[in-house]
Design a protein that fits this description.
Length: 816
Amino acid sequence: MASSTSGRALPRAGGVAWSLPRVGELGPYLFLAILTVVLMLAAYTPRPTVLVDLGNDRDGAFVQGFHGREIEAATTLRSFDWPADATSLTVPGGQRGDLIAVLHVAPDQPFNILREAAVAVNDVRVAMPRRTFDTIVVRITPELAQAETLTFTLVSPLTNDPPPPQHIVGRVELAPARTYRWTAAESSIALPHLGRGAWIADLGVITQHPDGAPLGATVTVGQLPPIALPETGEPRRVRVLIPPSALRDGSLDFTINSKVYTDPRPLGVLMSNVKVAPAVGTSLGTMLPPLSGLVLALVGILGAFATLQVLVGGPVAVRERWPTPSLWALMGISLAALVGAWFLGSYRFPSSFMLLRIASLALGSLLLALVLQRLTRWLFRVMGAPLEQAEDAEQLLDTPKATNLLTGERFLSILLLIVMVSFWLKALGVIYPFFVAVDVNWHMTRAMWILDGKLPLLYGTDSPLNETTMPEAEWGSERPVIPYSPWFHMVATVFAFVPFVDMDRAANLASILLDSSRIILIALIAVRIGLSRRTALLAGATYAVIPVAFLLHAWGNLPTAFGLWFTLVCNTIIICMWDRLHERRVMVTLSVFLLAAFLIYTVTGVFMGVFLVLLTGLVWLNGMRGGAWAELRDPLRPLWIGSGVAIALAILIYYGQYIPPIIEQTVPYMKTVFVQGPESVGVERLPFDQYLWSYVPHLDYRIWPGDYLYYGIAIPVLFTIPGYLALRKHPLAWVAFSAWGTLALLFTYAGYRISMVDKQLFYLLPVICICWAIYAERIWARWTWGRWLVVAVLLYTLYTALDQWLMRIAISEVID
């Protein structure tokens, strides 16, 4: 067999082999290395002024060992009475900087009534750093504070929930705010890869304990000797001249040590901000980037290009007036390097925090690419669609022209390229220092409970997971008993042991990796049901770019993401290995994944169980048509042997304890809700026609007025039914997709009665992508302009996905 000329994976009888690039092939790497050095020199030519505003939303990446964010009034609070008959209060604005507002409960209100309300200022929800049973402390950002007037209104704690009780606030106190953090006995502030040369640091501190005891505080700046901080109860500025020799390879850190006062927190020094400005202008010495930063940049750029080389292979050249895939990869990485250098020069922070993270991501991606090549090839072979086998146009449902067929190697390269780009786009957002997925910290906190020995609390029928995920506004005061399996949180404990990455971010990255692998499973299903490889690629690419796939990671709903992955794996096994379900190895594998789907998340476990029932019913009914339809009945017995084992184990392991309370409470509740409507349990919902119409704005590619998100799937949804009808000649695909779609319709109706949060739509996405891809392939092949139209749809969808993704990153709520 000929050896590789590009490091590309080649098929062998025993698997896949890779070869290192030869000397002549190192040209692109040398070019990228030189480009990286030049760009780093350009990025470090400007010397920025850096302000770390402690207590602000964007200080978390800089600090270590500090206590949580604090906010208090910097001057005397001004009081404004909230009229008893008014639903809002308008006060003068026109302020600079942050404001603090304290909302006080009105007289004669029920205890802790304010817990039922959140606060909006000028129709924008604002952060509420603290609340007590009779007050809500609100932080108003400088952007809002500068408005001529500030209008306070009460809104529901959860978006789109019924409005809270009105007339429960008696007065509002307003003043300019001061934000800060307390140090502990030893705390530090890090400015990695700041740049070479001399700097001037300016620290805002208060160095006095409430009891007046000596503080003995010192600050160590870089490699300078410790500097004693003068003790005073008033805000004080401390200025330090930092010579170039005090920096460690262009990185600067401050270490604050002091005696502590216990409140019960060990409080040291109150710090409000740190400002670092260049002491001198730019010179040749200051232009040199930190060596560690340069190495990380080289690893990131070269690692990313090596990853793409592994996936696409081939020489970097121009053939028939078109760049080869490797040349496109080189141009793409070069453009990314230019953009990264601009960010590093214009926004030294948080860009410098990204250097280590991008380098780690590049190395991890290179390893992932090598693993995915072997794993994907093996998976397609085991599932009955070997990539070594050429496509047969006569056997394909979409009957493409012979000239449009793809070889297995080209198909694998494009498929894994889609997977990798999808992974990168989402992972880059997650490793951004100020990104916070909404629910991730909540879930990881529960996972830490398990490590703290609280598993019995979460495993029983009185688990706090059950009620905390069922708000009264969505379920009523007499809520049913619905199990919330702790098995995801049990699995998630492993993220606490991932080195060098915090638990929340490790969990997010794992979720993104699983989600990106769904592209492979979608393509595998498409190929296995008889569609062409190009159709499979279009289906996978559609899933990679739709905004709704990004939203799940912005929300941080990890149990849903993991549960959806397991259900798709199960569906893939059932569809691709239908004729082999009787084999012991296949049956055991299916049982294991079904058990995981049932245990990892209850909602998707229910989806899986209902899908099995619907699939069985449809297979049996369509078997009456005879012929190939009747042959589908044979695997039902092994399907239910495997499913029965998984169901029995799930009941034995966890769900069995819930049978009595479900019979006593949940069944009567569901009967009442579905027969008499949600109003019978005190829940207000839209009329059914408005409920269905509410999906329309979400399908769009932009946020409608008054809404807060979009899914960006309108075009694929329009082609779902026609694509589904095109599968009617394939019995197994027809009944499987029928069961898939019927389940989504049933739970869409269920979502009108009980809270579903559109999970059934996420479950249906693989079907939507495949059905749309059937017609996208026809459009691509039939008209010369068709391919440009399909590409335009995918690019526009990607643009809207990234637009919403960046917006979600920008508005991430901070967590102390």
